[in-house]
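We store chain and fold; thus.
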Amino acid sequence: MDLKDWLAACPLVAILRGLKPEEALGIGEALVASGIAVLEVPLNSPSPLESIRILANRFGEDALVGAGTVTDPADCARIAGVGGRLIVTPHADPAVVRAAKAEGMICIPGFFTPGEAFALLKAGADGLKLFPAEAGSPAMLKALLAVLPKGTRVLPVGGIDAANIPAWRAAGAGGFGIGSAIYRPGDDAAAVAAKAAALRLA
């Protein structure tokens, strides 16, 4: 499946910052059971490659598992080596996009300006992460989508929760990266499942 298919099934990307490997299975089960099948473990989490390996082994083709906060192109091969199939960056670096695509991975790099967006798409990005979204607005997204190639999927990330999803959705958001509104370190599977349900409703 490509990014379009994953987001059509559910437009939410769970950003599991701070996830520990011993929690990965329980949290992953809760999310996938809730219908959220794109799971991102930021590289500034404890032992992120181990968590990605556990999630990728358990969910295989049922979830798109990968890494966030990727800033070094060389990390793409390491992430692919443990079964990761998704690369998300906090910044606009075409070199990371090219490295991810060379590994056959889906890549959603971060951007904030039209110039960054077009450079990333030229490098092969599958979608774009509008970050930090709380510094922008749904009106900004609507204006960007008017000039980006038709069908470009832009995912606001940063401060996204059940309350503001509808406004971003109305502006044309192709999906959403959800951080603390879906998982905070210390949350158990039941808490994550409850938050996931509220976000799915939104």
In short: Residues 3-201 form a domain with the TIM Barrel fold (CATH 3.20.20.70). The longest strand covers residues 38-42. The chain has a mean pLDDT of 97. The first helix runs from residue 3 to 9.
